[in-house]
Design brief:
2 copies of one chain form a homodimer.
Chain A lengths: L10 H19 L5 H11 L7 H10 L6 H13 L3 E4 L4 E4 L10 E5 L5 E4 L3 H12 L3 E12 L1 H5 L3
Parallel strand pairs in A: 3-5
Antiparallel strand pairs in A: 1-2, 3-4
Bound molecules: zinc ion (ZN) (4 copies).
The structure holds a DNA duplex (30 and 30 nucleotides).
DNA sequence: GCAGGTATTGTAATGTTATAACATATCTAC
DNA sequence: GTAGATATGTTATAACATTACAATACCTGC
């Protein structure tokens, strides 16, 4: 089931799976999923909305896990560098990864109605981008593919 | 000459053409290309690098054209809304459009070596994005497609 | 177990990007 | 020339991000 995050689903299971996979991969690859990092991942997993670094920071502060911006940014850097989360450039915010595997260059769909962000792992858009870049002799190191609009639910309600 | 901005070219002509087209389109569509807006467009056209709002603001200040952030942001908003310039989300910065026509959803190639930004008007990436979104029932209003890496010149030098 | 190096966290200060809100001026249409 | 719309001037503040350095935790070899 190609979960892009908008369809109805058992989100508790969704969270549990993601967390378990993260733990497993961290162990396998010798990554240290420390308390702050793990907690930030949990916070991002709470729903499929993107959260800003300062939203995360506020939560950490409330829990006594860190008081200054670098605490949040460092955890988010760790999570994004290792593919547990992604940064949404359009929003200057972060979402938990819903595609599990390590390296990937996904595309995102950002709903202006409900603020959810859907992820698609490998896309025609990504392939197209690589092809265009190659044709121009451009060597791609990182790519950003984001669509902003209305998710199926929100488009239906005319919102 | 599908100018993506990286190839060698007569940049004076490049600027003159863009400016003339902007004037023409502004007149045709009843848009007001005021002194500040026109000057900001000129500043963006100076080269094919992206410039931050505060870079622009500094230039305006030096020229006595405006002293506060909103002056720069408003001009940039006008230019981007009307397709004379584009915002590069990855850089929180702005480039002049090199594709002339009105509505378009381009992709950008951001060089980490020389900081130039190349634009491609309509791309396979854009088409792919639309297709993926449609398949997911997502209604796209705006899209962001940006590749970061090395341009042909910079990739050659191993930089 | 303990020294020494590496990775992580704590904290203060600061830098950068962006907007809200409201006053004033300019343009356009009638 | 007056009214309404559009654009600009200005203050203040919000939102996002990093630098720099100190302290601690952790691993690893001995
Ligand atoms: Zn879920
Ligand atoms: Zn939605
Ligand atoms: Zn040029
Ligand atoms: Zn370059």
């Amino acid at each position: 089931m190609s979960a892009h995050g908008f369809e109805r689903h058992d989100h508790k299971r969704c969270v549990a799976t993601a967390l378990a996979e993260a733990e497993a991969r961290a162990t396998a690859e010798g990554l240290r999923l420390t308390p702050v990092r793990r907690r930030v991942l949990e916070l991002l997993l709470e729903d499929h909305r993107a959260q800003g670094a300062y939203d995360i920071l506020a939560r950490l502060q409330a829990e006594g896990l860190g008081a200054q911006p670098p605490v949040a940014y460092r955890a988010l850097d760790f999570l994004t560098k290792n593919g547990f989360a992604h940064r949404i450039e359009r929003l200057n915010a972060y979402v938990a990864c819903t595609e599990g595997a390590g390296e990937h260059a996904p595309m995102f769909m950002i709903c202006k109605g409900c603020e959810r962000v859907g992820e698609i792992g490998e896309t025609a858009a990504g392939a197209g981008l690589k092809a265009e870049a190659a044709a121009a002799g451009f060597a791609v190191e990182r790519q950003v593919i984001e669509a902003e609009g209305l998710c199926p639910d929100c488009a239906g309600t005319g919102a």
